[in-house]
Amino acid sequence: xxxxxxxxxxxxxxxxxxxxxxxxxxxxxxxxxxxxxxxxxxxxxxxxxxxxxxxxxxxxxxxxxxxxxxxxxxxxxxxxxxxxxxxxxxxxxxxxxxxxxxxxxxxxxxxxxxxxxxxxxxxxxxxxxxxxxxxxxxxxxxxxxxxxxxxxxxxxxxxxxxxxxxxxxxxxxxxxxxxxxxxxxxxxxxxxxxxxxxxxxxxxxxxxxxxxxxxxxxxxxxxxxxxxxxxxxxxxxxxxxxxxxxxxxxxxxxxxxxxxxxxxxxxxxxxxxxxxxxxxxxxxxxxxxxxxxxxxxxxxxxxxxxxxxxxxxxxxxxxxxxxxxxxxxxxxxxxxxxxxxxxxxxxxxxxxxxxxxxxxxxxxxxxxxxxxxxxxxxxxxxxxxxxxxx
Length: 390
Ligand SMILES: *Cc1c(COP(=O)(O)O)cnc(C)c1O
Known about the structure:
Bound molecules: pyridoxal-5'-phosphate
EC number: 2.6.1.87
Structural class: alpha/beta
Strand content: 5-15%
Protein name: UDP-4-amino-4-deoxy-L-arabinose aminotransferase
Enzyme class: transferase
Keywords: Aminotransferase, Transferase
Number of domains: 2
Number of helices: 14
Number of strands: 13
Largest sheet: 7 strands, mixed
Helix content: 40-55%
CATH superfamily of the largest domain: Type I PLP-dependent aspartate aminotransferase-like (Major domain)
């Protein structure tokens, strides 16, 4: 048991989910159809959003949202460097300027004050990131955006099931969830864009499938009417039903999934108190419900006796998986080497992001883990740190 590999994550798929996917495979209709429609309805019900569009990934959702909002050359988009690079890549590919905002060192989330300092007449969009399963402090961010007439898209890739002030993340504005294999609810690959803006929803629905005129999902034929015509050039970002169906049972079990993650995280947080230099992130001070997507710790070499990369290697030698969420985008080769030339401005100084980028490590966390698994990780961390003590 101690020798078997403990991964960073495992999808929370049960036999019923797998049977449901097999039933779709046997049904004769395996691509976008009734299961997508149900997934979209379920996400609306869970979040209170009025429109949900299922897509092949959250990255696809970000791409379409940027295009649908008309973001392009000359526009500035404020988002953290401490995010998954897909967001920065999509901004760069539209020709707009990614403006990296600093994060709070305790929660690794950005704040309205940090965003406000970066606003210029060219700022068109803010993409704040709900981090590791905690909710951003949304009220000040929306107040700021409204004051300046700037749009917000919440990156909620980590936050399906999280709450802010008693409301589910996604209940206002525009928001993107990821259903990638590592996320709390998964379709292997997938994402959902939600909004209360009918026109934006229609545009994204059109762009996700070749730019065909949006018509009602046809329940008889499981698809669009064959007469649908291109009204603008679009993409091929739809989600197949064999994927979409996997999420339906997970969404029904979402409270259970979140509770299992919460119990494991509580266990970790309690037991990490005894380990010098390996410290969990702080939970935000504002009213929220965490969905414990990632168990991120900071490895402080001066106290732990080793650095983050050494720790990941030492865990791997003990058959324990670990991850980095994230390597800051501003330190990655393309952005680091070309930012000034591309955008005719200096890379902002991001001391908290840079420091965190070298220290953060994600430990195994998934609902099927047991408290013995947590003890195994904690035991390994204790041994590793003790071995490195001077
Ligand atoms: C996973 C993730 C994404 C991208 O999701 P995909 O579905 O893989 O495209 C975007 N932002 C953050 C913060 C993520 O963790």
